[in-house]
Amino acid sequence: MNRFVITGARVFDGENSLGVVDVEVADGRIASVGGSRPAGVDLVDGSGATLLPGLIDAHTHTDAESLRQALTFGVTTEFDMLSMPEQMIPLRRRAATSNDLADVRSPSIGLTPAGGHPHQLRKGEGDPQWPTANRPEEVAAFVEGRIAEGADYLKVLVEDGQLFGSDALPRLSPELVEATVRESHRRGKMVLAHAMTVETVEQVVDAGVDGLTHLFADRPHTAELIEKIAAANTFVIPTLTVLASITGEPVGRQLAEDWRVYPKLTPEWRENLSGMMATSSREKFGYALETLRALKEAGVDLLVGTDAAHLGAPGMAHGASLHGELKLLTQAGFTPTEALRAATSVPAQRFGLTDRGRIRPGLRADLLMSTGDPTVSIGDTLSIRHVWRNGTYCAAAAINASKPEA
Ligand SMILES: [Zn+2]
Fold first, then answer.
1. How far apart are CA 14 and CA 55, in angstroms?
2. By the 8 A CB rule, do 283 and 265 touch?
3. Residue 38 belongs to a domain
């Protein structure tokens, strides 16, 4: 079947740089790394390029077209963080076997009070009524309902909406978060929490959630809270991309103007990426950067995520924004290698996906080849030469392989 050897490329295996070694792919899997070259097999020239594991975006809200777009940017897996099950569960099944889409995992809907966040942002999306739970005794049924739908993990939202420019919305109580953690862990599922203030992050970490889907940014962090997160081994998906949009930093616009980005986006997505929400004050982006540095210093696992959603959530675009997030992380003090780990091996490990996130024999051949060396210059990730998903070549990824004439 489909068998080839990538030669001459530097290899970043998800953790470390291996130097220039051959990587053999057979039947959708990595067959060998640095092994002897079999006779008569097709060769792919990787001279001047770096081969990386397919990238993982650990915070999106997605659909089929978004997964298709993500793949053209070398994002081979997305972790959706809230979608309608009617649309998401069939898509998850389809994406598992469609090599022209990024793969996807999802919590289905999340637990939020009736009328709570993000209902105010989803007006006009035609969502059906979502189930919720108002008392701890109702939480087991909520958790079982999501698992029965096919949820991979559970999500809770503890948010009064003010960072998003809303008046105070009903907010999920700590008792309901605790009950969700208890009922989910009992059934072998993780719980991820949307909480964006010092006060609510304290609550959800005390309740035992596994991960935070954003950095908190309402005010400067406290040393105690950083220690609490580190001691609990809670992981954090910083989503600087959406925080930049919320606080009016023009990060998306710069990305939309990059010649390696705009040919892959429709005019609608280009416009979406160029926009911003600007619903909160700019100093909060500074708080988020300081918090991120403190979390990293404390050894907390940090996972690359963008919050790329649907058209109408400005400042983000599936696939493209992941490269922007990598760059933001290096501006916040990550080395390029640390940023790349946060988009490959770390998210795979924290979400229990043992078949991806690294270039290692036996794992999925989800691969990105970029010209240059992103372990030295992170911006090189966008100089995409080739993308494979499950060993299948993505022709649409090579659309901008050379710079257009000025
Ligand atoms: Zn989100």
1. 9
2. no
3. no
Give 99-139 pLDDT, tens digit per residue. 999 999 999 999 999 989 998 888 877 888 889 999 999 99
DSSP character string of 25-42: EETTEEEEES-PPPTT-E
Is residue 8 a part of any domain in this protein? no
Phi, psi of 284 (to 5 degrees): -70, -30
Residue 29 lies in a domain: no
**370 Cα–ligand 1 center, Å:** 28
Q: Which helix (H) or strand (E) holds 202?
A: helix 198-207
Please give the distance, rounded to the nearest whole angstrom, from the Cα atom of residue 58 to the centre of ligand 1: 10
Ligand 1 centroid from CA 137, angstroms: 27
Tens-place pLDDT, residues 248-275: 999 999 999 999 999 999 999 999 999 9
Question: Structural domain tally of the chain?
Answer: 1
Sign of CA pseudo-dihedral 262, 263, 267, 273: negative
Domain extent at residue 59: 54-108+210-354
Q: What is the CA radius of gyration of the chain?
A: 21
Q: Categorize the per-residue pLDDT at 401 as very low, low, confident or very high, splitting at 50, 70 and 90.
A: low
Sequence-ordered list of residues with C-beta below 8 angstroms from that of 65, at least 6 positions apart, any chain: none
Look up the CATH number of the domain holding residue 101: 3.20.20.140
Does 173 reside within a domain?
A: no
Say how many Å lie between the CA of residue 352 and the centre of ligand 1. 21
